[in-house]
UniProtKB/TrEMBL annotation:
Source superkingdom: Eukaryota
Low complexity: bias regions: 137-151
Signal peptide: none
InterPro entries noted in UniProt: DA1-like, DA1-like_dom
Organism: Arundo donax (Giant reed)
Ranges where the record places region Disordered: 137-157
One GO MF term: ubiquitin binding
Stated name of the protein: Protein DA1-like domain-containing protein
Ranges where the Protein DA1-like domain occurs: 1-206
Taxonomic lineage of the native organism: Eukaryota, Viridiplantae, Streptophyta, Embryophyta, Tracheophyta
Length: 211
């Protein structure tokens, strides 16, 4: 799977994300927890230009700039809320990239549970792949006799990330909403049984998950 179009990826503050969401004419949003957005409308958003400096619990010297989105295809940009953990940011990006792929491939207007469900499947798959990669690096560093303090810190960070990843996976799996929760569970069953490629082809032809 490949997104054959250059799509701007912007890190934004909550206010900019909310404003962009209001500017979209279509889309299903997981309120009040929207943390990413795949845009298809032309609009101007405020993106973070320089990383802020932390002073105590306050964010200082964050600089933003307006970014004009022009419509050259079905997707104008992907916005992700700034400041989230790496695994959460990556899973949101995987989810929104799936939205972009569906639009660019000309999929029909899908039911919310089908579109959001398959996007959540991709987010879940991405987290799983990162957890597996982290587990592999842990095993390798544990078996090494010449472990250093740096590798110990990395191992500790990986263990923390693995627990964090398990939590984010559980959030997706236990979501109670119809579009995101029920949609994910139906999509995940289909992908486990038929594979991702066949599931996407069935969605393209019928607008539903295979059962």
């Amino acid at each position: 799977m490949k997104v054959e179009q250059q799509v701007p990826l912007l890190l934004v503050e909550r206010q900019a994300l909310n404003e962009a969401m209001e500017g979209e004419k279509a889309g299903h949003h997981h309120l009040p927890e929207t943390r990413g957005l795949c845009l298809s409308e032309e609009q101007t958003v405020s993106t973070i230009l320089r990383r802020p400096r932390m002073t105590g619990n306050k964010i200082m010297e964050m600089i933003t700039e307006p970014y004009r989105l022009t419509r050259r295809c079905e997707v104008t940009a992907i916005l992700i809320l700034y400041g989230l953990p790496r695994l959460l940011t990556g899973s949101i990006l995987a989810h929104e990239m799936m939205h972009a792929w569906l639009r660019l491939k000309g999929y029909r207007t899908l039911r919310p549970d089908v579109e959001e469900g398959i996007c959540q499947v991709l987010a879940h798959m991405w987290i799983e792949s990162e957890i597996m990669a982290g587990s592999g690096s842990n095993a390798a560093s544990t078996s090494s006799s010449s472990s250093t303090s740096a590798s110990s810190k990395k191992r500790g960070r990986s263990q923390f990330e693995q627990k964090l990843g398990d939590f984010f996976k559980h959030q997706i799996e236990s979501d109670t909403s119809m579009a995101y929760g029920d949609g994910f569970r139906a999509g995940n069953r289909a992908v486990l049984q038929y594979g991702l490629k066949s599931t996407l082809e069935h969605i393209r032809l019928t607008g539903t998950f295979p059962f």
